[in-house]
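Objective 1b of the project was to move from sequence-level analysis to a structural picture of ligand recognition. The entry below was assembled by the postdoctoral researcher (A.K.) and checked by the PI before modelling. It contains the amino acid sequence of the target and the SMILES of the bound compound, NAI.
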Amino acid sequence: MAEAMISGIVEAELIPAEQIIATNKSNEERLQQLRNKYGIRAMKREELDFSSVDFFILAMKPKDIDEALSSIKDKVTKEQVILSVLAGIPTSYMEENLNEDQQVIRVMPNTSSMLRESATALSPGKHTSMDKVILAKKLLACIGEVYVIEEDKMDIFTGIAGSGPAYFYYLMEHIEKTAKEAGLDEETARQIGSQTILGAAKMMMEQDDTPADLRKKVTSPNGTTAAGLAALEKHGGGEAISEAIKGAAQRSEEISANLNKKIVTQ
Ligand SMILES: NC(=O)C1=CN([C@@H]2O[C@H](COP(=O)(O)OP(=O)(O)OC[C@H]3O[C@@H](n4cnc5c(N)ncnc54)[C@H](O)[C@@H]3O)[C@@H](O)[C@H]2O)C=CC1
Ligand SMILES: O=C(O)[C@@H]1CCC=N1
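Corresponding predicted holo structure:
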């Protein structure tokens, strides 16, 4: 996820690449790759001059949050902002485990950040100034659209947008499989499927019609779409989509609930 964000931020040219610094736990080879590919600076955590940083973006797995927070706690000041993209980690947890009054922002991007097409949510913590929220929003706008949401909506947002790209990739895998069975080659099927998804997404974004209106316009009485939709419904298509979103949102809630019990496993 961190690389997708780096890619989008560098591409946007809002800040010079050399002002972006990446660190990881110990993988020097990975840091070298990031340096070469994006022209950013990348260094071991021990080499980082904390005082030179305005925004820290935490992008480790949720299970590594405690170690990460304790390793930065005594090095960050109140003026600096800690952004976290970790699923299920509430701002209150970061505040409790950092210094009093620390400015924190919970963020949920998705991997389309790579192409500056993320749908990203942010929720500020209780000590975060409006100036910093505006700055964070500007930074995140480099990777796509940004939505400031109430933190209690972050789990459902994660279910829709953070995890969402995977549902479309899964859909595409099935489109390809079915097309292949009917004799189309995979590459052609991928292009046709992707263009169809892109066209439908643009219609929803650029037309005033609701998705239901748009669906009805495709569906001729007793035609092919009606047959396709009937099969989708018969096989639980609509319910499957709802359950996927709810499943991801519940997992996000579960990560939060397990934090205080210290049993985060992801
Ligand atoms: N993959 C995705 O589509 C999305 C992921 N996220 C969140 O992003 C986070 C990372 O996910 P991935 O990129 O998929 O995982 P990943 O395992 O590929 O990357 C995690 C990185 O964090 C590094 N790391 C661990 N502890 C560290 C520390 N204390 N200091 C510096 N670096 C440290 C690891 O070396 C590793 O490079 C997760 O918390 C996830 O919830 C959020 C939105 C979307
Ligand atoms: O699967 C995950 O937990 C992360 C968070 C959202 C997308 N990927």
